[in-house]
């Protein structure tokens, strides 16, 4: 569209030319022509004076284009800095927290991003899916946390690390650190010192779970030494895995008890049976024999019996996730091997 002043001036010119043409054709009085021309020019002049001047040499940014400067973005959300800077580790105050000093002399404490470590107090076992809950789980996680903290302090304090990125404000920054070009965050998860909280380190967590490293050793109860009412039986309950990851009811075959012959002679299991704490569930071994040092895994769910593995065929979870007392009973002599957690 034309500016208002240009439009008014053009209108005045058109009126003047039109008036002249009319007088030529119809022989109107030239005074009428003069009046029309003067009025048109006056209108154009007034409009030109009242129109706002065009800006010169300056531009006005759009207020509603939805874009913001880098400074504005940093002012409205936590900054993410990809620093790739070297730093020296000063301390390890917690299971997943590192204190370091940068080359510029800045001291900073960060939490390792994408992981969660239990700490020396163990914390809530519910954070670590598959770990035994209750007091046993808390105690086991606390022991794992103390071992991990001691190992980490020994390995890292005084060492150089690379700070790959720092996310978050001054209150609770998280960071990705590297040692010798390898992610320290991933190393914590791979060694079982922590669980993965996002997909970056999920593969490392799966490997640590499978190997029973660190916190994942707390998924299985392993008494040392085994507790017995009598020293006579060579059998013992070597391990219990009561809380498989995810929905317990959908993973019954991964809920199991390990029975071991710790003696020097074979043991006929014909008269032995396994009973869980409240006495509602029994498992009979149906004449199996365990050779010295041999183990038998009793799975709670359904499956096909094979060498070293038998199935309880229960339709619901049998073992409590937080506390339980299992009994391995010799029906002929009433000798009992107990395990509690």
Automatic annotation (TrEMBL):
InterPro entries recorded: Lamin_tail_dom (IPR001322), Lamin_tail_dom_sf (IPR036415), SNase_OB-fold_sf (IPR035437), Staphylococal_nuclease_OB-fold (IPR016071)
Domain LTD: 222-341
Start-end of Low complexity biased regions: 48-63
Stretches the record annotates as Disordered: 48-67
Pfam families tied to this protein: LTD
Protein name per the record: LTD domain-containing protein
Species, as recorded: Haloplanus salinus
């Amino acid at each position: 569209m034309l500016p208002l002043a240009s439009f008014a001036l053009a209108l005045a010119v058109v009126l003047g030319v039109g008036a002249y043409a009319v007088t030529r054709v119809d022989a109107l009085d030239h005074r009428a022509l003069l009046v029309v021309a003067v009025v048109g020019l006056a209108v154009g002049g007034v409009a030109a004076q009242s129109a706002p001047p065009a800006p010169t040499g300056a531009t006005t940014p759009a207020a509603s284009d939805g874009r913001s400067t880098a400074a504005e973005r940093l002012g409205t959300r936590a900054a993410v800095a990809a620093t790739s800077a070297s730093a020296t580790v000063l301390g390890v105050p917690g299971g997943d927290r590192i204190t370091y000093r940068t080359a510029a002399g800045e001291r900073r404490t960060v939490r390792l991003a994408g992981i969660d470590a239990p700490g020396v107090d163990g914390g809530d076992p519910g954070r670590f899916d598959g770990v035994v809950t209750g007091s046993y789980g808390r105690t086991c996680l606390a022991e794992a946390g103390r071992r991990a903290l001691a190992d980490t302090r020994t390995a890292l304090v005084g060492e150089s690390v690379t700070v790959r990125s720092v996310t978050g404000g001054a209150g609770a920054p998280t960071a990705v650190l590297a040692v010798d070009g390898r992610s320290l965050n991933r190393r914590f998860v791979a060694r079982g010192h922590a669980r993965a909280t996002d997909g970056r380190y999920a593969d490392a967590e799966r490997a640590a779970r499978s190997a029973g490293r660190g916190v994942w050793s707390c998924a299985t109860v392993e008494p040392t030494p085994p507790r017995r009412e009598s020293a006579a039986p060579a059998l013992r309950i070597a391990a219990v895995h009561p809380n498989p990851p995810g929905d317990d009811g959908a993973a019954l075959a991964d809920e199991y008890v390990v029975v071991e012959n710790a003696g020097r002679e074979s043991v006929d299991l014909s008269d032995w049976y396994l009973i869980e704490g409240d006495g509602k569930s029994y498992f009979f071994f149906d004449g199996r024999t365990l050779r010295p040092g041999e183990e038998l895994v009793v799975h709670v769910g359904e499956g096909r019996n094979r060498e070293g593995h038998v199935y309880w065929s229960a339709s619901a979870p049998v073992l409590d996730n937080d506390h339980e007392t299992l009994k391995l009973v010799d029906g002929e002599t009433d000798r009992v091997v107990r395990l509690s957690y």
